[in-house]
Amino acid sequence: MAPYDDWNKADEDEEDELQDASTFEGQRDVVLFCIDASESMHAVRDDPNGDGAKTSHLYTALETAMQVQKRKVVVGPNDSVGILLFNTSRKNESEVRGSTEYKNGTYVFQSMSQVNAPKIQELMRLLHEFREDTDFFNKEFPPMEEGKVPMGDVFTSCNWALRDGAPKTGIKRIFLITNEDNPHPGPKAARLVTSAKTTLIDLTQTGVTIEPFFISTPEKPFDPTKFWSSVLPPSFAEDDDEVDESLLPASISISRIEDLLAQMRFREQPKRAQFSVPFELAQGLVIGVKGYGLITEQKKGSYKYFTDLGDRMEVVEPKTLYVDEDEQNEVDKSKILYGMTLGATSTSNDAEDDSAGFGSRVVPTRNKVFFTAEEVQSFRTLGLEPGIKLLGFKDLSELAFEDNTRHSTFIYPDETTFSGSRRTFTALMKTLIKKGKIGIVRVLMRRNSSPLFCALLPQAEKTEESGWTEPGGFHLIPLPFADDLRAAPIEEACRASNDVREAAKAWISKLQIKNGSYPPDGNPNPALAFHYAQLEASAFREEYDPESFDDLTEPKYDMIHKRAGAILKEWKAAVLDDQSASTVIVHAGSKRKADVSIDEGEIRSKHKGGQLSKLKVDELKEFLKAKSQPVSGKKADLIDRVSDWLVAHP
Amino acid sequence: MPAERAGYTVTMFLVDVSPSMGKTRVVDLPDGPKGEKRTREMTNLEWALQFVLLKIQEMIYNGRKTDQCGVILFGTEDTENCINEEGGGYDHVTDFIPIAQPNSGTLAKLQALKPSTVVGDPIDAIIVGIETQDRYLGNKKTWTRKLVMVTDGENPIEVEDWELTTKKMNALDVRTTIVGVDFDDEEFGFQEEDKSHIKRENEQFLSTFVSSLTNGILGTCAFALQECVRPEPKLTKSALMAYVLRLGDVATRPEEAVEVLVKTSKCTAVARPPSMKKFAKRVKVGEAEVDDMDIDFDDSNEVDGEDKKDIYAMLKMRTEYYLDRVDGEGGDGENENDNPEGEGEQQDGEGGEKKTTEAVERVDKEQLIKGFKYGSSYAPCPDGQFPKLTTEKGIDICGFFPDKNLRRDWAMSEVQYIWADPSSGQQQVAFSSIVQAMLERNVVAFARWVTRDGMDPKMGVLVPRSFEKVDCLLWVQMPFADDVRRYTFQSLENLVSKKGEKIEKHAYLPTEEQMSAMDAFVDSMDLMHAGDKDEEGNRMPWFDPRFSFNPAVHRIKQALFHAAVVTDLKTNPLPLPHPEIVKYLEPPRRVLKRAHDATENCKSAFKVQQVPKRVARARKDGHVHAQDDEDEELLLDQFAKRPTTQSVRAPSPTLVESHIKGNGKGKERVDGDVMDVDSTTEPESDGEGAVTQGKKAKKGANALPTPTHSQRSSPDPAESGGASAGSTGREPGRIIGRAHPLEDFEKNIRQGDIVSKAVEDLAWVVKDIVMRPFASRRHEEMVRCMKKLRETCLHEDEIDAWNFFLRDLKASCLAESGISNHEFWEAIQAKGNEMSLISAGEASSLGGQSKISESEAAKFLQT
Lengths: 650, 863
What we know:
The structure holds two protein chains of two kinds.
Chain A: H1 12-26, E1 29-36, H2 39-42, E2 45-46, E3 54-55, H3 57-75, E4 80-86, E5 106-114, H4 117-132, H5 136-140, H6 151-165, E6 171-178, H7 189-205, E7 208-215, H8 228-231, E8 253-255, H9 260-268, E9 275-282, E10 285-292, E11 304-308, E12 313-315, E13 317-324, E14 329-330, E15 337-339, H10 351-354, E16 361-364, H11 373-381, E17 387-395, E18 409-413, E19 418-419, H12 421-435, E20 437-444, E21 452-459, E22 462-463, E23 469-470, E24 473-478, H13 498-510, H14 526-539, H15 557-577, H16 600-608, H17 617-626, H18 635-648
Parallel strand pairs in A: 1-4, 1-6, 6-7, 7-8, 9-17
Antiparallel strand pairs in A: 2-3, 4-5, 9-10, 10-18, 11-12, 13-14, 17-20, 18-24, 20-21, 21-24, 22-23
Helix pairs in contact in A: 3-4, 3-9, 6-7, 13-15, 17-18
Chain B: E1 9-16, E2 24-29, E3 38-43, H1 44-62, E4 67-74, H2 82-87, E5 93-100, H3 104-111, H4 122-137, E6 144-151, H5 162-172, E7 174-180, H6 197-211, E8 216-220, H7 221-228, E9 241-247, E10 258-266, E11 277-281, E12 309-323, H8 345-359, E13 361-363, E14 369-374, E15 377-380, E16 394-402, E17 416-420, H9 425-441, E18 443-450, E19 458-466, E20 471-477, E21 495-496, E22 502-503, H10 512-524, H11 551-565, H12 579-582, H13 589-594, H14 596-606, E23 609-610, H15 630-638, H16 653-661, H17 672-678, H18 741-751, H19 755-770, H20 779-795, H21 799-813, H22 822-831, H23 840-845, H24 854-862
Parallel strand pairs in B: 1-4, 1-6, 6-7, 7-8, 9-16
Antiparallel strand pairs in B: 2-3, 4-5, 9-10, 10-17, 11-12, 12-13, 14-15, 16-18, 17-20, 18-19, 19-20, 21-22
């Protein structure tokens, strides 16, 4: 149950966002990169993207690790990261590592610790060295001369590395990067498989999951069935499901080395459910589902207050108190009651009441005029328990585009609360897709939230070209309440003639992405990226050059003009020719001011003659308003603005 | 309907305080906390006044200076009104509260009203009312005039010349509402029995009176009270904001680029519940603090006189900053006190607070520097914000794509209308041509929107819409790359076996029979013709967002208003919510009835079963309960036949010691309990358990049934009701616990010298678990345990122990009477020889000995 004061968050939507943000802050993600440094990983080859530059699998893996750290450091500053290399003859000096000696052939390059600037800079330096001298890694992390480290030993080292450095709480994951599909050929294979398997189980028992990234190249194809499928626990990503041994691990991803970063992006954030609730299809027919925020606005995160302790800067925690201002004493949260002010204290109150001060209320003793926190919560929830309740089904076409107020939530069955959830859920999903229907459901996501009505939009599983698989499930799309709907304020306007419309169609078709859709991947949030870039520079104590920033969301002007420039010109001419353009629709203006005429021609001629100051402030404002310009400031500002506009729009 | 101008209204309330209003009635109250029926006796005056109070409260709530009211009483002993002062007459009518913006005093005065001893005439009051109102409004011609009268109609009315009055009222356009106590209302379905003759006449008259008004209604009080809380969307007129819709490079290639002047306005905007203020009772110095807010009202306690008053002060929020020096590792600061009795959050909150204040020090805000965290590094940023991106206000079209590819689930914001500039025909033509062309080509646009110069841009789609006489675009925000979370989920439909083959039949996959049951269920729960009938008698779809009121918003508003108008919530609790608020909370009854058979079919086809809840995991505070054996013993009692073949050894202190302290290699191995605590960090936090400021909010014992699975791949302990959170479920003397036997076992094996004991105990635990209820959930885990056990036995020369165990297990699993577990044995059989008795051949390959022959081992498993 959330603390009592949570209910009164200024707005409910923000409550959602806040809770999401707090998972970033509180839930620590712990990632150990476990990178194969065998000879084949070292093999230098041409960088496909670079001009003559060289690269290697190991380089790409380390670069990916650096990129992930860079992301983590801003998105989850409390996360911890470490890097472990295996199949290298380099060793940790034992005194550095304290009591632990890692297994032969494994080397902890960066021990587990909270992400920080020096760590990232160290990696960047390392990568830079390689660019200068491709033999650098061979010297730095020489591959083992003979054979391979038993995977069991690798997992044991991982276990120690995590144990030594990782915070106790957190989601611990190992990102395993290797191109070796059969590390233990030969006679001892069976035993080594067993030992790898048992050490891995040991590892997973302590709450660690493994996310393998297997690299496959035409020269060295990767066959997971040779070794890995028998070692890796089934469906480790599905930590929550009852695991069926017979199923192939779903999260084995095999990629080309170039896709490593992209693949890692998919798994960068550990999967977190926002809620786990029963889904009641009918009385007595209840399944378990978990909700995930697949679309959530990523925000910059607000600044924190730091205090200077001399040797370091430390974050201070803000704490909110509730005080009775007149008495200057803090009030215990459990004593807080809820109600509303009754406006200004009435004048007729007697002397005693006046002494109580503004906003206070005086009532006969033992009378109850305020609500307790529990009561307030029951008003919020209407006494409902968290859960999803099916109300019925409607045609897909009933879900209007304009019926939207906030982001959707994805739900997926949860077999651990109700067995049989998955088959029921899947059957419902398939049936709705087949019939072209949506569900209408009532949703109470959390104990402290209010009921919402949502459309239950089925999502078929779909594999995209990028290799990403859109998961099957349902999207919960919150529907607006009657209270949220606003009427259209404009009911009538001029319309285009056929000619103009045809002219517009011409350029629209030129600017159309064939069979495309809105591409989120091509549009990283520029404001966030700009913020992060500056944050990074500040942490590295570097100057930041804002000119170097590239906003990818800006329209591709060159492409637009190249494809449609000429036709756009034609369309503009057609608009000017249109007859109806001159008709003026009379508006029932609510302004009681005298009508201000804003004839553009007249203003232009005044502008030419330097006579703008003859115009009235109202007229200037009206003109500016019509041009969607600001109307603030003194008359001189307005004149400047008008002439600026006229110069800019000859 | 043109939107009515809010405010600029004077409402006259005319309240009948004649003696007849003192008649008492019994009013039903909502059921008490234990479902008992509750009623309350009150006078008709009190009852009818609620209507007036609610109306006035709404004005107070809206807080408009131009929303004013005055109150006139009729039936008062004295006479005090403007007409009487000048020309006499109009007796027993009193101008009680002069016209002004109402406040809490207005409510208090009305609440204190008592019936008088003389009767008053409603028509007199109306005339005084409109006259007072007219004089007040003198030169404010545009104000709206309203008049509300409450009366029981039991007293004589002077009906002469009433037409003159209505004529005057129509001339002034007074909107009149007459609320009658127990007036008959056919539509509402109320008819008063034993109605007095005079009341019947008066009702008749008032009805005629109202019908001759251009703007008047008459209603019975019960209905009026209900309608007071009828949810009504607050009509908000969206402001039009000016923008430029751009296409192409306006700055350098203007002749080819497009600029259309547009206005935007909100299409959806989330309405929030009214905010509640926080109050606390002031405790006078020296006065013992008594818990007065007990809902149960104990009269015997009341020794104080009636004059005694309580003062409730409104609270202000204040933020203070604390430095936690102790909190080195962050997560370890979670030293909130444990609360085994589960006495609720209050205690927790207090306890936690005290702790924090002790461990931390307060810092002055002036000494603080703003900055961001960059991992464990710190990035100073004195302004609290880095310079922002330079952006230009406007909407830039980036491209078009087919509307069928629009992802509905990506829409992430409120919706905005975009209109052509209403003042320019040319802009309208240009805009409309774009909208219509988009419609004809079935495309939507995606665009970048900047709300103000320098503001962060947003990406979104523009969807064309054509109304009867105007075209517009709708904008909704779409996610940036950063906003899309790509979580991977196991495929629901495509299950692949380890061999890479598609699995066709599985408990996760619905069968044909299940699919057809679902098909029928979906059809039977269809809402497309389940709503009200339209004019032609056809049923319309059930559920329409236009009539779905936000239950929370309206319920909170109702509660606030109610608390403001009543003097004591104990005797006058909050009435039930208006039916309109709750109408969509449950499926329509007709549909449920229709779906009954299909639902039953589904239930038996899918056989969904609740998995028994497990006890909440250990708290993060490291406080582990002393082994909570209560439930465990209960379970054991049921299965008294627990194997006793193995003598329980005396607890071995050394073993336990090494277990708990994990000495030797520093913190190499933490005690099993703590390990468990660690892994409680769920990778998937339910939002509620979200974490604030690094301190884990704890789930109440009865919180959501959130499965507390960790990433551990093994299923969690099945002893659902059993061992309390964090316990390893170890029996005294055993070094292997029930909770994580494999883990315990491996730990012990690694330590080396206690193999025999570990083998013996794991064998005991496996059998113990297998013979318990709900064991099936752990079968797989047990098989793993046995594999490990067998492997260890084989290598560590404990072959006889294995063979003894397996025989014992088989006997128990296949027991004819009592507890058995055939299913588990079948699972073992399925594993084949690798799970069977260890034969001589197998043993000798590793230098061990066994008396069992190959064929014996093979045969053993087959039966």
